[in-house]
Design goal:
This protein is mainly alpha-helical. The protein is built from eleven helices and four strands. The radius of gyration is 18 Å and the shape is globular.
Amino acid sequence: MVGVAESRVIEAPSARRFYPGAGKRMLDLGLTTLLALIWVPLYLLIALALLISQGRPIHYRSARPGRDLEPFTMFKFRTMRPGSDDELDEILRADENLQAEYMISGKLRSDPRVTPFGTFLRKTSLDELPQLLNVLRGDMSLVGPRSPATYKELHEFYGNDALTVFQTSPGLTGPWQVSGRAALPYTTRIQLDLDYRDQCGLKTDLVFVIRTIPAVLRGDGAF
């Protein structure tokens, strides 16, 4: 088995070896900078709306596993009441149906913690706009495995696949984003991420970026 693995590495095209590292980073910085005239004003407008409608904090910050499971601080626009992370266990204990739903998708379709403006941000995926800051910082990539999983999700759902999936940086978009997002069961999401690891390349990433636009406009699996 070792000999087969070594043979694959030797025979891999140079572009294949280059892209997942430096090439992917060049694409991230290039596209994020190129589109700054669009996303930066939108970012500021949403931040102002959040400040007026629900006060501080504007951002939700959370420690998430990045490439090789190294922790980083993920940014999102805050869509829930302050202190909502502490409420989840109590909500799930009080309702077995919600508990079952959470175990399948890791989210709740009608989460009582989400604010009205937060519902709009989630439905349009605009709550994830601050993750472009993570992309610029190198914590994330534009395309990669499912948008940052929590450590709790890694423990409960990913198991031994976690190290394999996160050999590349988590993505702002990727196969899960264009295939149903939170509506997908975890087994499907993990398999999509495993497949992406084997298919990662410039053409693949550009296709996912393009496919993300109609998926976001349709609101596929966004809640």
